[in-house]
Predict the 3D structure of the following.
Amino acid sequence: MDLIADRGRRVTVEELNTTRLLAHARKQAHKRGFDDILIVDVDAHHYENEHYDEFLPFMENDVLRQLVTVGRSTRQRPGIVPIPTGYQDMGGRVTRYPMRSSEKTDQGQLRDVQLGHRWMDAMGVDYSCLFPTGMLNIGLHPQTEMEVELCWAYNRWLTEKVMPEAGGRFFSLLCLPFADPDAALRQVETFGGRKHVGGFMITTVRANIGVHDNAYMKVYRAMEERGLAIAFHSGVNWSDIAFKNCNRFISVHALGFTWYNIVNCTNWVINGIGERFPGLPVIWMESGLAWVPFLMQRLDHEYMLRPSEAPLLKKKPSDYMRDMYYSSQPMEIQDYDAMETTFRMINAETQLLYSSDYPHWDFDLPSTVWDLPFLSERAKHNILGGTAARLFKLAPRNEKQKANLEKFGNLAAA
Amino acid sequence: MPEKFVARLDEFKDGERRIVFVGDNEIGVFRHQGAFYAYSNFCLHQGGPACEGLTIAKVEERLRPDKTSMGLYFSESEMHFVCPWHGMEYDMKTGECVADRRKKLKKFQVVQKGDEVYVLA
């Protein structure tokens, strides 16, 4: 297949085959014995926006469903979910973006399941928490009722069609229509008890989001009562006023993914949500890790002088942040000393969850964690999958994995 | 040092690349503007297939004498190859990582014997 490079020059590259593309990942996994270690990827993606035909029919409202399904002939159906400006594929440099449609899959099994298993098998990943791609922008939809309907349809499709076909290797934190707290509660009540559901995910790229609003307390309570987790998945929005002065995508991407989680985490901590729902696991996703020590230091410093503005707190903000979980990717591996400090500050051994973010452009392999020179064996096992196995009650897939889970106290499901 | 056959010269056109396997090692061989360049196919970032992605000219930002920007241009002289996993770019002529030129892919010598191309690995 040809890709267009500089000045229209055509460059021939092999057609996409995920197994072939990730052959070096398989070598790494084999060399490190990853098949003997339970590895859980808590943030991987599929392109649900290429399957609108399959999940839009699950929309409940006749009028809204007709609006998005009739008269649109293309499979991808542009215009249903807002698409922020950006260049994730770097002008085709990350070849799996422009070549995605060229990858061949077998008839008779869902394409996304086959593709998912290919990258999981290559990396040595046993379980993936599957998230959408286009739907990560659902919070930018101008119609609340459409956000509710699309989340509902996606959650039904994922729990009734996709995950049941995945041989038990996919689970998900479902899309929560955060713009409508009542609808969010209904979706927790409807889907929260379904198989392969570990909790719910809030896309944080939103015009208005106050995680501390009283309207959401019933939603958090419903999740806590059911033993579910809540995740905040970050993203980018170049149109956000905060980033309008950035002239390069690198700037928006570097700042955006951290910014939205910084804001939401601040509101969560300062308003004492952790005191109100101590049994609700909270996961901050896809913001890397460097922002966490920054925010801990900022909030602790201010809290020491202004505790009257955060009266629900019984300990420092950073202590609440150490009660939360963080997905690892993209790990900012440039300075091992800084990273070691970060790991210490977040109690990585018990709070960090490996994530790949595959197939997105800045994915991390399990070796990024395994090869860190300052981690103990226990920390490596916990981060790569042990902690997630406890959190989501995931069973080992072979006897050696079981022995490793037992060794580090992570065997939660048999 | 053993020689590994890469390709017949007439079947290896300018702008193309070949990947050759030597034991567990993989070497990417490029033909660019008449010259051959060969590097380890293991990216210095996360071990991706560094030589199997796009080749694309360096992007430059040109400045006027008063330091105002004229915008972005493709270089007329510097070609890069890009690891397809994450987009890490390497200088075709040196194998240097262009974001940090202290880091280099291992380079291999390429020899022509008659109408055949070999890499010394």
The CA atoms of residues 23 and 121 of chain B lie 10 Å apart. Chain B touches chain A at residues 15-16, 24, 42, 46-49, 52-57, 74, 82, 84-87, 89 (CB under 8 Å). The first strand of chain B starts at residue 3 and ends at 8. Chain B has a mean pLDDT of 97.
